[in-house]
C-alpha cells in the first residue's frame, strides 16, 4: 500500500524542481505584474505604498489616444510583416525545393539573417538607412535620384522597420515551408504530374493544401513573435518619428521608464499578454482539431476494413 | 492504344549505368508484366515510360512517334502506384476526377464517368470519404478507379498489390485478371512476384541486373526458359539445379550426377551431343517427379522433410550432396526419413551450361 503510494508520487517528485523554477521565474513575475496593474505605482515607492486603484489603469488606457495609436501600429506592423513574410518565405521554399548543385549552400545563406542577434540587425540597418553615409542613399545619389528620408519621415520609417523585419524573419518561414515541402508524399506529386498538374496547378491544387497545417502553425508562431518585437525598432527609430513606429513593447518600456507609471505599464503588458494568449490558444486549438480529425479518420478506416 | 517500342533505351544516374541500352516492343492491347527481383530495373523502365524519369539515351516510341521528351500528361497514360498515391486532402470523388477537372471536362460528364467506374469497382458508397478513412484494399480500388476514369490509352501499374495482405492480394489479382479481359488497353505491370506475373501477363518480360533475360508468354517462360535465372525465377516451388555431366552410353545420352543417372530423350540427346563442355547444370522442376514409377526414369531420393500444403506436399529430399524439392500429391503420403524411389519425366529435364547458365 505504502509502496504503491510512493510509486504514484515519484513522477511529481521528479517534476518538483522544474515546477519550483517555473514558479519563481515565470509565475511570480506574471503574478507581480498582474497585481501591479491594479496599482497607481511610482518607481520611487515600494510596492506596498502604492495606492490600489482597481481597474482604473485598464479603463484609462482604453481612452488613451497614444496607447490606442501604438496598439494600432503594433497590429498594422504584425499584419504587414507576417503577410509579406509568408508570401516571400513560401514562395522561396517553392522555388528552392529542387536538387540543383549548390542548393544547400544557397539554403544556408538564406537562413543566415535569422541567426543574427536582433540588436545587431537593428544597428546594421540603421547604418544602411543613414541619410548621408548609408548605402541606400549613397546608391540613390550616385544614380541621380533624390535621397529618401528612411528613418526621419513617418511613413518611410514604418516601411523601413517593416523591411528590416522581413529581411530577418522571412528565413524562418522559408525553412519551415521547405521542411513541409520536402516531407510531402513524393508519389502523390508524381500522380499529380501524370494527372496533368504541372507548375502552378501542382502548387495550387496539391502542394499548398498539403502544406496548410504547417503553414497555419508557422503563421501563428510568427504572429505571436511579431507582436512582441522590440529590439530592431528600438535601435532603428525608438518609436519615432512621432508615434509612427511606436509598437506596444516600446510604449510599455517608455511608460515605465520615462513616464514613471508602473501600474499603467503593467496594465498595458497585460493587454498584450491577453492578445498573445488568444493567439497561442488559437494555435493549440488548431493542433487539437487536426489531431482529432486524424484520429477520427483513422478510426473510420479501421471500421471500414 | 499505341504500340510501344523501346529503341536502345538506357538509364544512368551520373556515372552509374543502371539500365544498359535495351530494345523492347509491346503490342497494342497487350498486358505486359515486367518481373524481376528488386533492383533489376523494372520500375525504372516503367517510370521512364511514364515520364517520371528521363531517358539517358535511346528513344521510346508510341506508334512511331517519339515521346521520351514529352511531359507525363502528354503521353495519354494512367498509373497506379505501389502506395496508391492518393491526394490526402481530397475526397474519393475529387481524387478520381482530378485529371478530368484539370482537363476542363464538363461537370456532368465527370460525374457520370466517376459514378460508372465507382460502381464497377464497388466504391460508389465511399465517394465522399477521405483516403485516410479507407482501408488498404479500398484505397487500392480508388487508385485503380482514378486510373480507369482517365480512359487513357495505356495503363501503368507499379507493384500495385504489394502493400496488401496475402488474402486481399489474391482477391485483387483475380479482379485485375478480370479487368484485363474486359478493358482493351495497353497495360504494363511491374511486380517482383512471379505468381502475379504468370497469372496476369499476356507477355512476361523477366529482368535481372538491368538486363532483359527473356520475354514471352507465361507458358513459354515456364517450358523453355533460356537460362538458369529465368528457370529459377519462374515457377513455384523453384526449379532444382544439380551439377552433373553428360555421358554417352549405348547410343543414349545420360545426365549423370552424384547418386543418379537420367537418360535424355532422343531429340535432346541429338541436340546436346555436340555440347563442348560435358560438365553441366541439370534443371529439374519439382513437378517433374512422379510417384508412378512406370512413367519416368527411376531415381532414389532420401526424404528429409515433408511440407504439407493441402492437396499437394513439397518434399525436401537429398540426392548425393544436393537438396532436391519434389512436389507430390498428399493423397499418397511419404514418410520423412525414408529412402524413396521416384520417376523423373525425362522430357522435362533441362540442361544448362555450367558457366554461362544458358540453356543448352
Give the CATH superfamily of the domain at 64-272 in chain A.
Answer: MetI-like
Q: How would you spell out the order of helices and strands of chain A? A: HEEHHHHHHHHHHH
How would the global form of chain B be characterised? elongated
Question: How much helicity do the residues of chain B have?
Answer: 25-40%
Q: Bin the strand percentage of chain B.
A: 35-45%
Report Rg of chain A: 25 Å
Mean pLDDT of chain A: 88
Number of domains of chain B: 2
Q: Uncertain runs of chain A with pLDDT below 50, 5 residues or more? A: none
Helical content of chain A stands at: over 70%
DSSP helix count of chain A?
12
Order of helices and strands of chain B: EEEHEEEHHHEHEHEEHHEEEHEEEEEEE
Count of individual helical segments of chain B: 9
Count of β-strands of chain A: 2
What is the gyration radius of chain B calculated from CA atoms? 25 Å
Distance between the termini of chain B: 38 Å
Oligomer: heterodimer
* The named CATH superfamily of the largest domain in chain B: P-loop containing nucleotide triphosphate hydrolases
- In spatial order, strands of the major sheet of chain A run 1-2
Number of extended strands of chain B? 20
Question: How far from one another are the termini of chain A?
Answer: 45 Å
Amino acid at each position: 500500500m505504502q509502496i504503491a503510494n510512493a510509486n504514484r508520487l515519484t513522477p511529481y517528485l521528479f517534476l518538483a524542481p522544474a515546477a519550483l523554477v517555473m514558479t519563481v521565474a515565470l509565475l511570480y513575475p506574471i503574478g507581480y505584474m498582474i497585481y501591479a496593474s491594479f496599482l497607481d505605482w511610482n518607481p520611487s515607492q515600494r510596492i506596498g505604498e502604492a495606492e490600489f486603484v482597481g481597474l482604473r489603469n485598464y479603463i484609462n488606457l482604453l481612452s488613451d489616444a497614444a496607447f490606442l495609436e501604438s496598439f494600432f501600429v503594433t497590429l498594422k506592423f504584425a499584419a504587414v510583416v507576417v503577410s509579406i513574410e509568408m508570401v516571400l518565405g513560401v514562395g522561396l521554399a517553392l522555388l528552392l525545393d529542387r536538387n540543383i548543385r549548390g542548393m544547400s549552400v544557397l539554403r544556408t545563406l538564406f537562413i543566415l539573417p535569422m541567426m543574427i542577434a536582433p540588436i545587431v540587425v537593428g544597428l546594421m540597418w540603421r547604418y544602411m538607412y543613414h541619410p548621408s553615409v548609408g548605402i541606400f542613399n549613397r546608391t540613390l545619389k550616385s544614380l541621380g535620384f533624390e535621397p529618401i528620408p528612411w528613418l526621419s519621415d513617418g511613413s518611410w520609417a514604418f516601411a523601413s522597420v517593416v523591411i528590416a523585419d522581413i529581411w530577418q524573419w522571412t528565413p524562418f518561414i522559408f525553412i519551415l515551408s521547405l521542411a513541409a515541402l520536402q516531407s510531402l508524399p513524393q508519389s502523390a506529386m508524381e500522380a499529380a504530374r501524370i494527372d496533368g498538374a504541372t507548375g502552378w496547378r501542382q502548387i495550387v491544387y496539391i502542394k499548398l493544401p498539403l502544406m496548410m497545417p504547417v503553414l497555419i502553425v508557422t503563421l501563428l508562431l510568427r504572429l505571436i513573435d511579431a507582436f512582441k518585437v522590440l529590439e530592431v525598432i528600438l535601435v532603428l527609430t525608438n518609436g519615432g518619428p512621432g508615434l509612427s513606429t511606436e509598437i506596444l513593447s516600446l510604449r510599455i518600456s517608455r511608460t515605465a521608464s520615462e513616464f514613471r507609471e508602473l501600474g499603467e505599464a503593467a496594465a498595458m503588458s497585460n493587454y498584450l499578454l491577453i492578445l498573445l494568449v488568444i493567439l497561442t490558444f488559437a494555435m493549440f486549438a488548431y493542433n487539437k482539431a487536426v489531431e482529432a480529425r486524424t484520429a477520427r479518420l483513422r478510426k473510420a478506416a479501421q471500421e471500414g476494413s | 492504344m499505341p504500340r510501344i517500342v523501346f529503341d536502345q533505351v538506357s538509364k544512368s544516374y551520373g556515372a552509374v549505368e543502371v539500365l544498359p541500352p535495351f530494345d523492347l516492343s509491346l503490342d497494342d492491347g497487350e498486358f505486359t508484366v515486367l518481373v524481376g527481383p528488386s533492383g533489376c530495373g523494372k520500375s525504372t523502365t516503367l517510370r521512364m515510360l511514364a515520364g517520371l524519369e528521363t531517358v539517358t539515351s535511346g528513344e521510346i516510341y508510341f506508334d512511331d512517334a517519339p515521346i521520351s521528351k514529352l511531359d507525363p500528361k502528354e503521353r495519354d497514360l494512367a498509373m497506379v502506384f505501389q502506395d496508391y498515391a492518393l491526394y490526402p486532402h481530397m475526397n474519393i470523388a475529387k481524387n478520381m476526377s482530378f485529371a478530368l477537372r484539370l482537363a476542363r471536362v464538363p461537370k456532368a460528364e465527370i460525374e457520370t464517368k466517376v459514378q460508372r467506374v465507382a460502381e464497377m469497382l464497388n466504391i460508389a458508397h465511399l465517394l465522399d470519404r477521405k483516403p485516410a478513412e479507407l482501408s488498404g484494399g479500398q484505397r487500392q480500388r480508388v487508385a485503380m478507379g482514378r486510373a480507369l476514369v482517365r480512359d487513357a490509352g495505356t495503363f501503368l501499374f507499379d507493384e500495385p498489390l504489394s502493400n496488401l495482405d496475402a488474402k486481399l492480394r489474391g482477391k485483387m489479382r483475380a479482379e485485375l485478371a478480370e479487368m484485363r479481359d474486359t478493358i482493351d488497353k495497353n497495360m504494363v505491370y511491374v511486380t517482383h512476384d512471379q505468381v502475379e506475373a504468370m497469372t496476369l501477363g499476356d507477355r512476361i518480360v523477366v529482368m535481372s541486373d538491368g538486363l532483359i533475360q527473356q520475354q514471352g508468354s507465361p507458358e513459354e517462360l515456364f517450358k523453355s526458359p533460356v537460362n538458369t535465372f529465368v528457370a529459377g525465377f519462374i515457377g513455384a516451388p523453384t526449379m532444382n539445379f544439380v551439377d552433373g555431366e553428360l555421358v554417352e552410353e549405348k547410343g543414349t545420352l545420360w545426365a549423370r550426377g552424384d547418386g543418379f543417372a537420367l537418360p535424355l530423350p532422343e531429340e535432346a540427346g541429338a541436340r546436346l551431343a555436340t555440347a563442348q563442355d560435358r560438365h553441366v547444370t541439370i534443371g529439374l522442376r519439382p513437378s517433374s517427379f512422379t510417384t508412378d514409377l512406370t512413367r519416368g526414369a527411376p531415381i532414389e531420393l532420401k526424404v528429409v522433410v515433408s511440407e504439407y500444403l493441402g492437396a499437394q506436399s513439397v518434399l525436401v529430399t537429398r540426392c548425393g550432396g544436393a537438396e532436391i524439392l519434389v512436389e507430390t500429391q498428399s493423397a499418397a503420403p511419404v514418410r520423412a526419413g525414408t529412402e524413396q524411389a521416384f520417376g523423373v519425366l525425362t522430357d522435362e529435364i533441362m540442361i544448362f551450361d555450367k558457366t554461362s547458365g544458358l540453356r543448352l
